[in-house]
Amino acid sequence: MKKRIVVAISGATSSIYGIRLLEALRRYEDIEIHLIISHWAEENIKIETSYSVEEIWALAHHNYCNNEMGARISSGSFRVSGMVVIPCSMKTLSAISCGFTENLIARAADVMLKEHRSLIIVPRETPLNVIHLENMLKLARMGVSIMPPMPSFYHQPKSVDDLLNHFTGRVLDLLGIDHKMSGRWNDGLDD
Ligand SMILES: Cc1cc2nc3c(=O)[nH]c(=O)nc-3n(C[C@H](O)[C@H](O)[C@H](O)COP(=O)(O)O)c2cc1C
């Protein structure tokens, strides 16, 4: 069976992280991508990227509107390997941490939690208030990977693309997917 990954893009700035992850996942023939894009994510995609929303939908194998509560990924009986909310707005973070499953992103994430499956959240806001931090802590205590899109520089990035690729590689690492997105620190073990 193919490895099924749910990717959810919510309405925080930096939707390009979600797009880059989709582009990376699409290269694997044994991965099936299930994509949800929130209304405000669609707006942000138009504001801050050169992609059309249709181009992004085309990167996934299965697409869902955020109000599609009857979708297969709304049920724990539908087997998926993991879910990434990238980027995750503070509103969606709050919904997930409170179990307020009034849209499909929150419901699919809730299913990950109840089925003890891998959930990765890429929260995007700055600065963070106590509500944001407490919501992240609560989820981290439940085993969720909280992965803020913080750039690293040890791989000597030359462009925004390099930063995006390196971060995407770290997300793939958490999903247990082998990749060559970016160099690793001292991976050659030459000393
Ligand atoms: C241009 C733009 C940028 C935004 N950036 C952020 C952000 O970085 N983080 C955040 O939590 N919300 C951000 N918002 C607000 C969210 O879009 C808003 O809270 C929305 O209700 C989130 O809904 P969703 O999580 O269902 O997509 C932004 C909104 C706009 C229009």
Features:
single chain; 191 residues; Rossmann fold; 6 strands; 17% strand; binds flavin mononucleotide
How is this structure best described in words?
This protein is an alpha/beta fold. It has one domain: Rossmann fold. The protein has 7 helices and 6 strands. A 6-stranded parallel β-sheet has the order 3-2-1-4-5-6, with helices on both faces. Helix 6 (130-141) links the parallel strand 5 (118-123) and strand 6 (145-146). Helix 1 (15-25) crosses helix 7 (160-175) and helix 4 packs across helix 6 (130-141). The longest helix has 16 residues, at 160-175. It is globular. The protein starts with a strand and ends in a 16-residue tail after the last helix. It binds flavin mononucleotide (FMN). The site of flavin mononucleotide has 16 residues, from helix 2 and helix 4.
Summarize the SSE layout with pairings:
Blueprint: E1 3-9, H1 15-25, E2 31-37, H2 39-48, H3 53-57, E3 62-65, E4 82-88, H4 90-98, H5 104-114, E5 118-123, H6 130-141, E6 145-146, H7 160-175
Parallel strand pairs: 1-2, 1-4, 2-3, 4-5, 5-6
The chain binds flavin mononucleotide (FMN).
Residues 10-13, 38, 40-41, 43-44, 47, 89-92, 124-125 line the site of flavin mononucleotide (FMN).
